[in-house]
Structures are given as C-alpha cells and as structure tokens.
Amino acid sequence: MKAYFTASIVGKRHYLDNYSLIIATLKKLGCEVFSDHIMKTTESEIHFETREERLKFHDRLKEWIAGCDFVVVEASFPSISVGYEISLALNLNKPVLILCNGVEPPSLFKSHKNEKLVCEQYTVPTLKGILKDFINYADDKNDTRFTFFITPRIAAFLEEVSRKKRIPKAVFLRHLLEQAMDDTR
Predict the structure, then answer these.
(1) For residues 23 and 99, is the Cβ–Cβ distance under 8 A?
(2) Quick check: 142 pLDDT over 60?
(3) Can you point out the beta strands (E) in 107-167?
(4) Per-residue b/e over 115-124, b at no fewer than 16 CB within 10 Å?
(5) Per residue in 96-136, pLDDT tens?
(6) For 136, which DSSP code?
(7) Under 8 Å CB-to-CB from 2, ≥6 apart: which residues?
(8) How far are the Cα atoms of 72, 78, 182 from residue 100, in angstroms, in the given order?
(9) How far apart are CA 25 and CA 29, in angstroms?
(10) In the chain, N or C: fewer CB atoms in 10 Å?
(11) 75 phi and psi, to 5 degrees?
C-alpha cells in the first residue's frame, strides 16, 4: 500500500524522531511511503522558493495524495499547510490518520464527522498497533460493503463508542466481528 506522510516542517525541531519512527514503522508494515517533501526539506528552502516552484510543488503534492491509499499525519506541532493537506485528502476520499504525541488532536478535526478521518493520541509503544489497525481499515481492496438497518438505540451506542475510542463505527463493528470469529474457532 502507498502511504502519504505529512507533518510540520517547523515541527521537525521537536518531533523529528517521531516522524522517522512513523515512517520506519509504515515501511516495516509493508507500505511505500511518500515523505521526502517533509524529511528532506528545510524551512529556509521553502522561504526561498519562487511562486512557480511553489505552484509546481502544489501540483506534485496533489498527485502524491491522489495516488496514495491513505494519509498519515503527525500533528503534534500545528501547521496550516498540514491542515490543507488533510482537507485535500478528505476531499479525494482518502482515509486519514491524524497522530498526536502528548497533545490533543486539532479540535477542528477531532470533532469532524467523517468516517475516513481517524484521530489518535500515540506513544512509542502504541504506535505500531495504531498504524497496523489503520492500515487494515484503509485496505479496502478485499472488503465488501455491507449495509443494514439498526435501531436508534444501537446507533446511539455506536456513536458513543466511536467518540470515546476515537475510531470509526465501522472499525468498531469490524473488531467485534473479528473477535467473535476468533472466539468460535
């Protein structure tokens, strides 16, 4: 699977080790990761870019996001540019995982109602599990859409669990079904 990784370039001063760990973990989980635009760029390089260079980069950025299977964001350090990339990915119907280390996820995205958007607080020990679960969620190549009616009581319960666990309702239901399958073996 192809993952697009983004984060604040200014935030590299504080979170470079986290950025590197996320990218390395995605690669260990079998993903091809687009991350050079963050990892190999400096603040000063951006400041000296011409308008034409910025527009050209923006076109490449859109191509990278359009060509990926999902987006992973390290959002511990705020960035308007990263917020734009998240919005672009959601408009392209890409699953987006927003990761925060020691801080709350951005409030605009934390309260955003979109099943393609997942916000998670992580630590080094929990990162691999979070990424693995998200990759499974994003990998819909073999998945089959299944629609069914539920009562308002069940809908309210799913909404509450989804909010508390900060996972999409579909992911919660999938986990329940997988657990039931394991229990019957």
Answers:
(1) no
(2) no
(3) 117-121
(4) ebbbbbbbee
(5) 999 999 887 776 766 667 788 999 999 999 999 999 999 99
(6) H
(7) 31, 32, 33, 34, 67, 68, 69
(8) 11, 10, 31
(9) 6
(10) C
(11) -115, 25
For residue 119, the cross-strand partners are 98
Number of H helices, E strands in the chain: 9, 5
Residues 7-33 pLDDT 10s: 999 999 999 999 999 999 999 999 999
Task: Let me know if 80 is exposed, middle or buried by CB neighbors in 10 A (0-12, 13-18, 19+).
Answer: exposed
- 31: helix, coil or strand? coil
Pairing of strands 96-100, 32-34: unpaired
The DSSP code sequence of 43-101 is: HHHHHT--HHHHHHHHHHHHHHHHH-SEEEEE-SS--HHHHHHHHHHHHTT--EEEEES
Note the residue count of the chain.
185
3-state secondary structure of 130: helix
- Which residues neighbour 139 within 8 Å (Cβ) at sequence distance 6 or greater? 1, 69
Question: Measuring CA to CA, which residue among 81, 63, 60 is closest to residue 11?
Answer: 81
Tokens 């011409």 map to which residue?
A: 50
Cα–Cα separations (whole angstroms), residue 34 to 24, 88, 160, 183: 12, 16, 34, 38
pLDDT of residue 134: 94
